Amino acid sequence: MLPPSEYLERELLEKRVKLALGSFQTPTGIMKFNCLNFVCRPEGFGVLGCHQLSKGMPYLKETVTAIVMLGHRNTSLMVCHRGRVSKFISSDLGFIQLVRKVMDKVAGQDETKLGKAIALSGENLEQAPLEQILRHTDPSMRSQELAQLIKGIKSAKKDYMVLISDWLAKSLPSEVKEIVLCGGTADYLGKQGWKWKKNYQVYWHTDLKYPSVLESMDLGNRMLDVWGLWQWHKERTF
Known about the structure:
Helix content: 40-55%
Distance between the termini: 21 Å
Number of domains: 2
CATH class of the largest domain: Alpha Beta
CATH superfamily of the largest domain: ATPase, nucleotide binding domain
Largest sheet: 5 strands, mixed
Number of strands: 7
């Protein structure tokens, strides 16, 4: 599955994949394959497949569904119009934009370390991950720095959600009846604070669950798109 910016080059990717499969080195020796069937889908298609399996194809053919994939670098939107993808676009409004907004409000933070700490602190802003990146050693200064960091994250999160909401308000077709929010950033943002231009039915990651072997890997919802695509194709192949 590819995001909008790369999906246009899927034919080029197919050629490169087939060329690479012709002969490549592995730890156990050289392997050679002939690619008989190359399938490329837009990012979010697996989540759409999960939603279809959860609700049933007749249901999807009667409504217009938007899949919003909130990632680290980008946010993408795919609209399924009664069973067919009719719109597929992206923006640079990924989680990294929230991190950079926090950096504008606090001093001396590294983008990578800050982003990890914010993600680990979760929707409720648990203090332990944030304490790991504090710069000061003096207890009083650390307390002030932590308070400033938490204040900055709360403020940045509100600003970021306004940006996301505004982009969706401009991008969502008027026919859309329901929205499926997915991706790691959707987990972080949670269900509060969203501003919708109308009363959509909103889902988080659909209702399909991982098999136990994937649940045990503590992947969260990061593999849901891939798992959904596999399930979607399996239903039509086996």
